[in-house]
Design goal:
Largest sheet: 8 strands, parallel, barrel
CATH architecture of the largest domain: Alpha-Beta Barrel
Strand order of the largest sheet: 3-4-5-8-9-10-11-12
Distance between the termini: 33 Å
Radius of gyration: 24 Å
Helix content: 25-40%
Structural class: alpha/beta
Number of domains: 3
CATH topology of the largest domain: TIM Barrel
CATH class of the largest domain: Alpha Beta
Length: about 475
């Protein structure tokens, strides 16, 4: 797995000149000691190649890489890049999750060489790239349908079926009781890591595939390189025990949608955080998000779902324990649902930078520059700062000083109400001098203090050491 480093300066006294010159003057030389933080400060960026640009190609997306790097992203997740099945497809273009060939590249996106060039360009910018992997089902004209029908789930009459309990009629359900199929699937996953040097996978509907399959697949992939594994699952901790590094914060995503419309409150938030703290251990963590391809297309834009609290929920998603996600287009405030089975490209503004892009860039900086907000064991514990107001969410995350870093304290206060509020805070030893991360204002907070918040607003404060 790719590593990200923080350098710490260490002063060492050395002698100038030859060792036989005892009167030589002393000078201070600075040597950098490197601390490995792994992926604890990483941000994921999801890409729908089809809709990302008018061209909908690898090459066109590649032109956006410097901008995405500048945003501060470290992991790029591509939705499936494989050829899409024509048989039983939905819409005119079909779903990228209906895989016609696990070893092929969708010609809609470009050639294999185009994809190799994209991977190389991502790595050149010191980022990682992971692929969306669809292990639960294939398209209806995948070669496996014809060569190995026993690899699929069948009804009592021997007919291959779509995944039970779903309306996914454009795909055929795979039978994971067949060991030969499992090995063929793992071979295909190994192919993209070995031959194209990708850095891992986001596993589609991971909870619908047996855990022991994922354990073996992850083990085999790690023999090639230290891959990053993300499970589309929000509850099965067995998936995180061995196979995956992180999974989805689905309960928190649902809570964001309710908080945004004032259908939940600060008490619900506290209960979610406390429950999560008991589940994620041993450097495992959740991917936190307010938007992705499913949310945008099927449930509405962030503005539909979160109302006047879009920025508030984004701030919380970047400051609670976990790894935050940005869905391509989210950083410009995309305000329409993207079609899933048709061409419907994002319209990027001219000039590109807008207030949302600047907001998300500052959010990423907040996360990457404050160890208190890191994922897993590197981050700070979350402490609630009040209990009485159901419309204000207030918490702090803190890490103590050590030999490599200063102490780091970050306070987050969010007013989800449509009217202004004055919130009392119980800060205790968090009292001190702070700077507002977004507007640069400095202020001094006492152990018992209060803060004024306009309607649907937030404050993010970093303690000045």
């Amino acid at each position: 797995m790719k590593r990200f480093f923080a350098a710490v300066s260490v002063a060492i006294l050395t002698l100038t000149g030859c060792a036989v010159q005892p009167e030589a003057s002393e000078q201070e030389t600075v040597v950098e000691q490197v601390v490995d933080y792994g992926l604890q400060d990483a941000v994921i960026y999801e890409v729908n190649i089809r809709q990302f640009t008018p061209e909908g190609t690898f090459k066109a997306f590649q032109e956006h890489l410097p901008r995405i790097k500048e945003l501060g992203v470290e992991i790029i997740w591509l939705m499936p890049i494989h050829p899409i099945s024509e048989l039983n497809k939905k819409g005119s273009l079909g779903s990228p999750y209906s895989v016609a060939d696990y070893f092929g590249v969708n010609p809609e996106f470009g050639t294999e060489q185009d994809f190799r060039d994209l991977v190389a360009a991502v790595h050149e910018l010191d980022m990682m790239i992971i692929l969306d992997w669809v292990a639960n089902h294939t398209g209806w004209d995948n070669p496996w349908i014809y060569s190995n029908p026993e690899w699929y789930t069948q009804d009592q009459d021997g007919n291959i079926v779509h995944p039970p309990g779903t309306d996914w009629t454009d795909v055929a359900d795979l039978n994971f009781s067949n060991w030969e199929m499992r090995m063929a699937m793992i071979d295909a996953m190994e192919y993209w890591v070995r031959e194209f040097d990708i850095d891992g996978y986001r596993a589609d509907v991971a909870h619908s595939v047996p855990v022991d399959f994922w354990n073996l697949a992850s083990e085999r992939l790690h023999e090639i390189k230290d891959v990053f594994m993300l499970a589309e699952d929000g509850g099965d901790q067995a998936l995180l025990k061995t196979a995956f590094d992180t999974n989805y914060a689905w309960p928190l995503k649902d809570l964001f949608n309710r908080l945004g419309r004032n259908l939940s409150d600060a008490g619900d938030f506290r209960r979610n955080v406390k429950s999560t703290a008991t589940q994620y251990k041993d450097d495992k963590y959740q991917m936190v998000f307010i938007d992705n391809h499913d949310e945008n297309t099927w449930h509405g834009t962030v503005f539909e779902r979160l109302g006047d609290n879009v920025a508030n929920m984004a701030v919380i998603s970047f400051t609670v324990p976990g790894m935050p996600l940005i869905y391509g287009g989210q950083e410009i405030g995309i305000d329409r649902r993207l079609e899933f089975f048709e061409k419907d490209p994002i319209i990027w503004p001219e000039p590109f930078t807008n207030e949302w892009e600047l907001f998300y860039k500052r959010l990423v900086e907040l996360r990457t520059q404050n160890p208190a907000l890191f994922s897993a064991g590197g981050g700070g514990l979350l402490k609630f700062l009040h209990l009485e107001n159901s419309e204000v969410i207030a918490f702090a995350r803190s890490v103590p000083a050590n030999e490599f870093r200063d102490a780091n304290d970050v306070i987050v206060v969010v007013n989800i109400a449509p009217e202004s509020q004055i919130q009392s805070l119980e800060l205790g030893d968090l009292a001190g001098d702070y700077v507002d991360w977004f507007d640069g204002e400095t202020l001094t907070l006492q152990s018992l203090d209060s803060i004024e918040l306009p309607a649907n607003s937030f404050r993010v404060l970093k303690k000045i050491n």
